[in-house]
Amino acid sequence: MSIDLKAARKFTESTARLLERHQLAVLLDDAPIQPVLTALKAYQNSDGGFGHALEPDVRCPGSQPAAALSALDVLIDVAAGDDPMITELADWTATIAHPDGGLPTVLPSAAAHPHAPWMAPDTAAGFFTYALAARLWRLGVRHPWLDKATAWCWNQIDAIENPAGYTVKCALEFLDAVPDPVRAAAAIERFRPAIRADGTVPVEGGIENEHIKPLDLSPRPAAPSRELFGDKMIEADLERLEGEQLGDGGWDFHFLHFSPGQTVEWRGLVTLAAIRTLRTHGRV
């Protein structure tokens, strides 16, 4: 099986945001990364955080943890590990963290603006702590907040019982990135019971049969989390991903489409992600 890369490019050019269009050019054409960084900078606020619907589910202009996560994904994607936005973002993260390093899931500024139902303000520390810590470790950052957050993550993992949904995904991201391979390998086994026989993790409260797929749980070959998934399972999921390209050239996402803008923006993001994942695994 193979994808129609020409159609995927056309879909991206006609539908995706400028940011994703520049990222695709870097991925496929070895284009310079500066246009990506310039486009990303437009989403940054004066406090160092990111907003303005960079993460399409939270559409407020103010800085949000979800948008911070999206910004770091872009910086990782183009290998911009020395960009000043990283330190600025880490500094902002420290200002919203709880004393123990845990991060709120959604800040109160989201309430006055359109947002997905699952992105209502919630100041309790949650799974974004794992995810943001993971990305800073992948970027090689050293920051006082990251030290606190790493301790928070280990404490949560050591005490975790019956992990589910996006907690599993984000915790595995942390364990794949934290520079403590022996401890991480042992901790990864704590999440095996949460994974169904087909390699998926259900999402409670989502749309019908919403679940997180193996390549979303462990997107990188040779990552420690790959121990939870056999080679046949990964190959089957790659074939599934190839087969989900739609007639317009793009991919769709498998959670609630709550607004036209969110739908268009997420489709651009998941199309870029699909091409990246397939390329990483030698399918493109």
Automatic annotation (TrEMBL):
InterPro entries for this protein: Terpenoid_cyclase/PrenylTrfase
Which Gene3D superfamilies does its entry note?
Answer: 1.50.10.20
Query: What is the name of the protein in this document?
Result: Prenyltransferase/squalene oxidase-like repeat protein
Q: Record the organism.
A: Tamaricihabitans halophyticus
Q: What is the lineage of its organism?
A: Bacteria, Bacillati, Actinomycetota, Actinomycetes, Pseudonocardiales
